[in-house]
Amino acid sequence: MNNITTLFSSEDKPILIASGFIVVILLIGTAYTLATQGTMPLLTANYLMLQLQSGAFLGIAAAGIMVVILLGHIDLSIPWTMTAAAMMATTVGSELAIPTGIAVGLAVGVINGLGVGYLRVPSMIFTLGLDSAMRGLMVAHTGGYAPADQATPLMRYLASGDFLGIPMSLCVWTAVSVIIFLILRKTTFGKSIYATGNKEAAAYLSGIRTRRVILGAFVVSGVCAALAGVLLAGYSAKAYQGMGNPFLLPAIAAVVLGGTHILGGKGRYVGTLVGVILIVLLNSVLSIMQMPEAGRQIIYGTVIICMLLVYGRGQKISS
Amino acid sequence: MSKLAPIMRLSGISKNFGATHALKDVDFSCRPGSIHAILGENGAGKSTLIKIMSGVLKPTSGNLYIDGREASLQSPTQAASKGVVCIFQELSLVPDLSVAENIFLDSPPKKWGMIDRKKQRVAAQALLARIKCEDIDPSELVKDLSLSRRQMVEIAKALGKKPKVLILDEATSALSSQDVETIYDLLEDLKCEGVSSLFISHKMQEVDRLCDTLSVFRNGQHIETFAKGERSDEEIVKLMIGRSVDAQYPDKRPLIKRETQLSISDLKWGGELQGVTLKLGKGEILGLGGLDGQGQKELLLALFGVLRGVEGKVEIDGRAMTMRSPASAKTSPTNFALVPEDRKTEGLMLEMSIADNLMIASLASISNGPFVSSTKERDAVAKGIKKLQIKVGSAKHPVSTLSGGNQQKVVIAKWLQTNPNIVLLNDPTRGIDVGTKQEIYKLIHELAEQGKSVLLYSTDYAELIGCCDRVAIMYEGKISAELEGDEVSEAAILSAALNIGDVLEDEKRETFNA
Fold it and tell me: Could you list the residue ranges that cross the membrane (chain A) (predicted)?
């Protein structure tokens, strides 16, 4: 009895629901292809691997923003952190490209962390402001056009090459996942993140340096976004204006669909992984079904809202 | 009096939360014009009982009658419309609204369909005046009030609903002694008006003084109801815990000369601390008393590095120290620990596990570099739980599943893990059952015996008298008196707290005359 209740704690429930929904999406998509083409491409390893590869950019960005959401904050500077990192990486070029991109993310994270943690500006405003400022900087830098610089071979290899048949972007995503998982589960920093997100006053009075924790979380988020941006530039061979824009909502949605509490303190990394896969597959199946863009957006938004309703009600009943 | 028909009657009420039975087949009634005490340890089912009576929870089975008619209460609003009003232990005020807005939150006076602010303010003022809180400005925001003032607003809010049954859940535990007196008078008035007051308190003196009927609960069952005076205090305590208890406080420790561990001189902060000078000996238990809001809380926070811009000198073992943050205060060389005022918002991360809460202040001690060692963590958690005899199912359960007393033990255990030299306690036994209180007193004495110095702020004078070696009384941000040995008495504490020397003198004269 006790084992069952701890096995299915409130944190596991959203993850189970989201996993179940992934299965449902695959079944619906397969039923559609069987009916129209008589084949089942959705259940092949090749298709799934392809989805994971293209999901890696979203996955890496979501991993970073999850750490910030666990604190009860939000990082809305993801889109232009990605873009700025990609643009600076391609501008600098050579072997310094990737370190430059990461440094951009680090700098953004530090600025966000100082603003939110030390100056106590609400994160929603501060990160949104920084996002806008970066957009201005990048437009000034490029003159508003897509920069002509090309992604370096290493960036291209990491984004679209493969290693022993496994896409490199998937390997990078896996490495990021292992690191974030270990940080959240096994380190004092991770425990401090959960404590601060849960009740900042109690964490502070327990002698946790909460401002540093907030700074650290934004740095993680910035670096992850930058890495995602650099890889995305490698995937498309170059950086372009607004390349990070389509990633903000899906990244937040993936984290929240994976069961992380939007007000902080609760959530598991596995959930975010499941959330990313769910969103990637949903998009893919909708496009296979040749749903027009307008219909896709509607279904996509409705699914997110409905799933959150299910979670919310579940929590109310259990408490 | 007892011939009157009950206003509210419960028959065969049971309430289950999953597999736990919070209430088992309870019959209970309360009559008009009485002050009825409900006694029992934490977890005895008192809170569940009043939540059912006030419509917050629905019983699993059983019936509820108001004025002889069966009623099923769906919400607190509905209960209030039938005259059942509850003042909850957890304060239910909106911090960012004004006092008047809070008092009339669910039914503000209206004019043309809009809230009539003027009428609301005047009505709030009248209610506040009734509980002698003219000092509270109805347009002030609730968040700017101290905890005890907020509690008084809560009481005014309940009065505004014109209750027939008024339930007070630990309503006096956050109040200063003056306000407690006001509440006593108010309850007497209400009694004459035929209101039935249900009074939940852990303070026996209060119950003795105020209530005419007493009901004892234990393990979710209604054990016995009797009129005041039918049973002695010892018998009542025995009924509550189902066994007899020894003396409430540990034996007094002999007064010895101690070397000074902590020396505070002329500590100032804002208007709250106006030059506090105090010495704490090694292994000493120093009580901090006085009326609520005289700077006691700020003194503890200043020592713990929470406050900015503190002036004055703090020396530990003769060396000047500055505490910039709790993080620096808890580490060597200062080694402070602070058990804060409100365990629910300042002491615990309620949603997190018991284990996480126990270790959060001492993560460094269970880590190798940045990584937490799970074996070290498990050992430390087991040790902490065992040392304080915290009753837990599993250390992985959220700390919110524990009873109040056990939650407070977790807060204390958390700080013992850091092996502090100086322990600051801010009212550690507030709202805690008798059994746990005794364990905490014993623990404080053990800590002192181990050479740790304890600074204990308490709103309960008996606790200061029973538990401390020495008592310092604060008044308007200063130490107004220091008492030790036989000088520590309720009269002495009270007169120092009110900053008047006469009470003591009067009492001496009286004893002399007698």
Answer: 15-35, 56-76, 96-118, 125-143, 163-184, 213-235, 247-263, 270-291, 297-314
